[in-house]
């Protein structure tokens, strides 16, 4: 029987939900009830329930913060949130926490509660079955994976007896009956993984992805997945005809990508070589694949791609990123995280234009993080640098770097306080604007981000903030523009471009409307040649 915990500081509501449970006929045992966040934490760790019904509006540590803490202790726990009113910030966070439902107390009925609990129980059982299957497979396959890696090393050594090596492979279930090999690899997008999991969880996620690949390869005996530090999941396809189209390999990759997205909620990318070689050339084929790992670094992102055999990269960069370093310093000085996104976005655009050697891009990203750690007096995650080194695309490297910079910024800037000055719902809007400050964000964009109807969001936002969304965004950007214009040698054109305005005249018009002055009047030096702005 599955177990349930109730959390609500409204005692009558808690008693009402408990009363309803008795009439639902579900195989669900109530094992704990709590009236406060402190008591809830203690009881959760003692009971470790499978499902939690939790009030969002708890005093002190609210229901969303409690849910985060619960997920750290028991990631598979299912969550049903209760609240007294609809709130777009809360609903958005509930979605991010993969809540099974978000229920309004005044509208709660036995039928609605039963439906929500049934859905939560079904999802818990599905996840539990999956975890059990993976745990069992992990126990059986771990030693086998070590042996498969040994098999791979023997093939790459060039000195091992080929016949004996193939016999060794057959004992591991690797039976290559055809004369040619083609290969590729599946890469775990590090930015995607770290958005959902901790760095220390990555080895387990790597193993889970490999298990999924193994399950799917059972139906396609000619494809062999092997865990690898160099290539995440290395794939070898045994073919009879060296000119066979690669659809078997790409279809297999796609099935792995889809299943991993479904169960682990992370993004994978597949890469493969267009060449087929006889077994005797296996080592040279493998090394060619590894050497071309970064060749698609600036190409458009696709789920599966052929690795380019040639890539023309720039070896040095005249553009050293000094302006971007200054922006990172401003993020700390002003307590404004939007500078991080501006800095990394500008750097990304420039190195993409220059097609800078990927190794140098990764070094620069690592140096940005080291600078922030030094200035913030913080400590960067060592695993960040390992994952950065393994990135295969500029956007992956940029997203991973932004995440680490923001972590350091939070350590330095967000001192714990009892209450925030700005409404928590507006903080959610500000976070989105920080991440898209170089774009023209509309109310439709914001509504989609919050999973709300655009008309409803516009009305709700004006009621909440007292102004319409367009005015809010423009004032937000003009406050940043004032700070930027005060910097020596900064130009109005660059500030306009940086903040997402393609036209200087329109930027100047908006600036004067919201600041009451022309942009040139905020310059650190004399007014720019040409006099007042239009």
From TrEMBL:
Q: Which PANTHER family match?
A: ARAC-FAMILY TRANSCRIPTIONAL REGULATOR, REGULATORY PROTEIN POCR
Q: What is this protein called?
A: Response regulator
4-aspartylphosphate occurs at: 55
Gene3D superfamilies with a match to the protein in the record: 3.40.50.2300, Homeodomain-like
* Domain of life of the organism encoding this protein: Bacteria
Q: What are the residue boundaries of the HTH araC/xylS-type domain, all occurrences included?
A: 427-525
| CDD domains membership | REC_YesN-like
Instruction: Could you list this entry's UniProt keywords, alphabetically sorted.
Output: DNA-binding, Phosphoprotein, Transcription, Transcription regulation
UniProt keyword Lipoprotein present = no
Species source reads Paenibacillus phytohabitans
The record's SMART domains line, in alphabetical order, gives: HTH_ARAC (SM00342), REC (SM00448)
């Amino acid at each position: 029987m599955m177990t349930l915990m109730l959390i609500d500081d409204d005692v009558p509501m808690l008693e009402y939900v408990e009363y309803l449970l008795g009439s639902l006929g579900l195989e669900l045992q109530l094992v704990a009830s709590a009236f406060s966040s402190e008591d809830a934490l203690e009881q959760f760790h003692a009971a470790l329930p499978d499902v939690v019904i939790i009030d969002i509006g708890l005093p002190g540590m609210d229901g969303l913060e409690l849910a985060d803490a619960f997920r750290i202790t028991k990631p598979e726990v299912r969550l049903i949130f209760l609240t007294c009113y609809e709130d777009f910030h809360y609903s958005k966070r509930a979605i991010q926490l993969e809540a099974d439902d978000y229920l309004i107390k005044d509208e709660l009925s036995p039928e609605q509660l039963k439906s929500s609990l049934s859905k939560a129980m079904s999802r818990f059982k599905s996840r539990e079955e999956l975890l059990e299957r993976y745990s069992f497979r992990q126990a059986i396959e771990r030693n086998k994976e070590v042996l498969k890696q040994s098999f791979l090393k023997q093939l790459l050594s060039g000195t091992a007896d080929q016949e004996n090596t193939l016999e060794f492979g057959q004992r591991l279930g690797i039976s290559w009956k055809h004369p040619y090999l083609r290969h590729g690899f599946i890469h775990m997008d590090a930015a995607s993984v770290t958005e959902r999991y901790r760095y220390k969880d990555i080895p387990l996620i790597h193993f889970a992805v490999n298990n999924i690949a193994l399950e799917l390869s059972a139906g396609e005996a000619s494809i062999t997945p092997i865990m690898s530090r160099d290539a995440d999941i290395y794939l070898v396809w045994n073919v009879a005809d060296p000119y066979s189209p690669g659809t078997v390999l790409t279809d297999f990759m796609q099935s792995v990508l889809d299943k991993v997205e479904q169960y682990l909620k992370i993004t994978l990318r597949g890469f493969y070589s267009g060449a087929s070689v006889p077994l005797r050339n296996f080592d040279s084929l493998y090394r060619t694949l590894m050497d071309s790992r970064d060749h698609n670094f600036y190409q458009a992102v696709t789920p599966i791609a052929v690795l380019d055999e040639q890539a023309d990269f720039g070896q040095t960069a005249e553009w050293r990123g000094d302006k971007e370093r200054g922006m990172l310093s401003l993020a700390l000085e002003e307590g404004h995280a939007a500078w991080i996104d501006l800095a990394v976005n500008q750097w990304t655009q420039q190195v993409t234009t220059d097609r800078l050697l990927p190794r140098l891009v990764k070094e620069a990203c690592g140096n940005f993080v080291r600078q922030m750690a030094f200035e913030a007096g913080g400590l960067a995650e060592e695993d960040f640098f390992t994952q950065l080194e393994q990135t295969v695309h500029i956007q992956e490297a940029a997203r991973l770097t932004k995440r680490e910079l923001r972590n350091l910024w939070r350590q330095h800037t967000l001192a714990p306080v009892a209450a925030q000055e700005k409404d928590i719902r507006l903080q959610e809007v500000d976070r989105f604007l920080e991440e898209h400050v170089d774009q023209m964000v509309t109310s439709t964009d914001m509504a989609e981000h919050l999973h709300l109807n655009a008309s409803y969001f516009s009305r709700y936002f004006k009621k909440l903030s007292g102004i319409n969304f367009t005015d809010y965004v423009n004032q937000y950007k003009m406050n940043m523009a004032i700070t930027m214009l005060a910097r020596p040698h900064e130009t109005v054109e660059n500030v306009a471009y940086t903040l997402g305005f393609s036209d200087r005249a329109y930027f100047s018009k908006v600036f004067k409307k919201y600041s009451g002055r022309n942009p040139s009047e905020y310059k650190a030096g004399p007014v720019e040649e040409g006099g007042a702005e239009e």
